[in-house]
Design a protein that fits this description.
Elements: H1 7-23, H2 31-36, H3 42-51, H4 60-92, H5 103-110, H6 135-153, H7 158-178, H8 187-206, H9 208-212, H10 216-233, H11 247-271, H12 274-283, H13 286-306
Helix pairs in contact: 1-11, 1-12, 1-13, 3-8, 3-11, 4-6, 4-13, 6-8, 7-8, 10-11
Length: 307
């Protein structure tokens, strides 16, 4: 899967990024926003697990370098562009350069939208230069490294890795309820998201997406469970550690939603022709869309206001 693109995987990525684009318009799209919000972050972790391959011969340093090139280089590159753009526009050209002008650099280094959970009084908001969505890249980077270490400790055995993952999940729950601040690079979220990576890896090993595609009755039951559990848990926002009513329940919901999207993506691959290929193209280019869509939204809004 690493060397040959699988179209339905790219289509699933496209579904996730489309929901991101809709949610970040600031408008409500009813059930699309609510139910899409249940999977639009987990699906990227699940898909990463689908394509993850643990290689015993690969060193941790080599793996880290590979993921740093894939995730951290774009993270700092896009964020540097956004910082320089707004620094020049809002501070340098206006002749109002001050210490506050460089505060966004702290946000880039901390890589978290805010210091405390959402709606906390006196919260500190870091990522204010239309770069808030980029938190995901550093979180994914840490999740990858933790998952690799988990697989190394389990010597590639998925059953042993599953047992070890319970410890990571417990740590993420304890951090959520006991730590008063949101950790840099979304470390708490990364520990939690390893479960989604493991879920995706298990799906790939057992080829469950392909096998259950031929069992529509089971898929209908899973869809009903996803809808019911989503309504029970309530809305979520992983970027600010909001998991609804239950972190554990959201693991089930996020996994179910991601799985159902992949089943729908497989259907599109088989029956949607050109539309499926167009979605696949979008899925192959989610990085720039994720990092720059708020900036593009701002440009469009400015143009519309001028007109």
């Amino acid at each position: 899967m690493e060397k040959k693109r699988v179209l339905w995987l790219d289509i699933a990525k496209a579904a996730g990024i489309i929901i991101v684009l809709l949610v970040h318009t600031g408008r409500s799209f009813g059930p699309v926003s609510f139910f899409g919000g249940m999977f639009y972050m987990p699906i990227f972790f699940v898909l990463a697990g689908m394509t993850f391959r643990y290689k015993p011969e690969e060193s941790f340093a080599d793996f880290t370098k590979k993921k740093a090139r894939r995730l951290l280089v774009p993270y700092f590159g896009y964020n540097l562009f956004l910082f320089l753009f707004f620094f020049v526009k809002n501070d340098l050209l206006a002749g109002q350069v001050s210490a506050q002008s460089f505060f966004p650099l702290l946000g880039i280094l901390y890589s978290r939208n805010c210091l405390f959970p959402a709606d906390a009084p006196g919260n500190v908001y870091f990522m204010q230069i239309l770069n808030a969505p980029t938190w995901f890249l550093t979180c994914m980077f840490l999740a990858y490294l933790i998952f690799w270490l988990l697989m190394r400790a389990a010597k590639g055995n998925m059953k042993k890795a599953l047992y070890l993952n319970f410890g990571l999940l417990l740590a993420s729950v304890l951090l959520h309820y006991l730590c008063p601040v949101l950790l840099p690079w979304s470390l708490d979220c990364a520990l939690y998201s390893v479960s989604f990576l493991m879920f995706g890896s298990s799906l790939a090993r057992r080829e469950l997406v392909e096998k259950l595609y031929r069992k529509p009755g089971i898929l209908v039951l899973l869809a009903a469970a996803f809808i019911g559990l989503s309504c029970l848990n309530g809305s979520v926002n992983m970027s600010v550690a909001d998991y609804g009513r239950s972190m554990i329940l959201y693991l089930v919901i996020g996994g179910l939603g991601s799985f159902l999207v992949m089943e729908a993506s497989l259907f599109l691959e088989k029956h949607a022709g050109v539309f499926a290929k167009a979605c696949g193209f979008l899925g192959r280019h989610t990085m720039p869309v994720l990092c720059l869509h708020l900036f593009v939204y701002s440009i469009i809004e400015t143009i519309l206001n001028i007109l």
